[in-house]
Amino acid sequence: MALLLTRAQRVVVLTGAGVSAESGTPTFRDAMTGLWASFDPQQLATPEAFERDPELVTRWYDHRRIGCLECLPNPGHLALARIEQEITSRGGSFTLLTQNVDRLHQRAGSQNVVELHGSIIVWRCTKTGELITPQPEPMQSFPPRSSCGALLRPDVVWFGEMLPEAALIAADRALADADLFFTIGTSSVVQPAANFIFVAKRNGATTCEINPTDTAVTRWIDLVGRGKSGELLPQVVERAFGPEKA
Ligand code: BV8
After folding, report:
1. CA–CA separation, 115 vs 163, rounded Å?
2. CA–CA gap between residue 58 and residue 141 (Å, rounded)
3. What is the pLDDT of residues 152-163, one digit of tens each?
4. Hey, is 117 helix, strand or coil?
5. What is d(CA 34, CA 86) in angstroms, rounded to the nearest whole number?
6. Nearest Cα residue to atom 19 of ligand 1
7. What confidence tens digit (pLDDT) does each residue in 227-236 have?
8. Cβ neighbours for 206, distance < 8 A, ≥ 6 positions apart
9. Average pLDDT, the chain
10. The ligand 1 atom nearest the CA atom of 192
11. How far is Cα 221 from Cα 216, in angstroms, rounded to an integer?
12. pTM score, whole prediction
């Protein structure tokens, strides 16, 4: 993997909840601990659930939002920011397509981040579409309302909702001429992100996966790194680019 990184000119990385696992944010499927253990995330992450019980859904999202704000980027996030810096400083291109909504990539210094599933840190007025960033403390009343009195919702993409058009266009553009594609910390179940590896492959990219376990796409991957991203990525980066410059 390190050798591939030293030669690649157009790198695309797809990340999922596993990249944030070592920061302490629960992966999407185990975001259901404690008081949320009795709920199915896919039943809460839908427009129908919000329609049916906006208080329950916004309480869950605010609980996760605060959890994300209390977490810090881990060495895996920092390694991805370093890869972007090394590739772009030698004239290459780097695109980070993330399914994560926690903005830890941006806090780690990644620049070209495409939020495929939106962000839990930003909320949106359901009437005007106005975006607001709530204070970094638990909301006081549920469901929260915007200044015009309409319901506020997290600016995430729910199951059954289209991904932002700008994100899909950016992903298509990056995948069209990628020469190296990484999928990191995702079970590769959720569409359309899970399909990106096939688009990259079709366009001639070499594909790598970093994950502690096999995923739904492992058998199509050229190079598999079995392990935690917070451990493997810093090793790959050190071998490819040497120790972090002071
Ligand atoms: C859409 C935001 C048009 C909200 C999320 C085609 C075929 C089949 C189904 C569909 C299809 N097209 C659309 C669908 C329906 C649906 C879908 O894909 N369903 C799945 C369940 C089959 N897709 C949609 O609805 C999408 N919209 O396509 O619109 C349309 C609509 C309807 C019908 C047709 C077309 C919208 C999907 C976006 C949903 N929103 N998030 C929120 O966060 O609350 S998805 C949610 O799942 C998160 O974003 C999460 O990131 C994502 C994917 O999960 P993962 O990231 O993979 O996380 P997971 O926990 O599963 O896995 C973690 C991985 O990390 C594991 O592999 C683990 O081993 C690994 N790991 C653990 N520790 C570490 C680690 N890896 C590295 N290091 C570690 N330390």
Report:
1. 9
2. 10
3. 999 999 999 999
4. coil
5. 41
6. 190
7. 999 999 999 9
8. 4, 179, 180, 181, 222, 223
9. 94
10. 28
11. 10
12. 0.95
> Which residue, by CA, sits nearest to atom 75 of ligand 1?
18
Separate counts of helices (H) and strands (E) for the chain: 10, 9
Would residue 63 show up in a list of annotated catalytic residues for this protein? no
Q: Which residue has the higher pLDDT, 31 or 241?
A: 241
Amino acid at 41: P
Residue 245 backbone dihedrals phi, psi, to 5 degrees: -70, 140
Q: Give the residue carrying structure tokens 């591939």.
A: 4
- List the structure tokens of 163: 């991904």
Q: Looking at residues 123-130, what average pLDDT do you find? A: 98
Q: Is 28 in the pocket of ligand 1 (CB under 6 A)?
A: yes
Please tell me the distance from the alpha carbon of residue 170 to that of residue 87, in angstroms, as a whole number: 18
Contacts of 90 (CB under 8 A, 6+ apart): none
**Alpha-carbon distance 197 to 221, whole Å?**
8
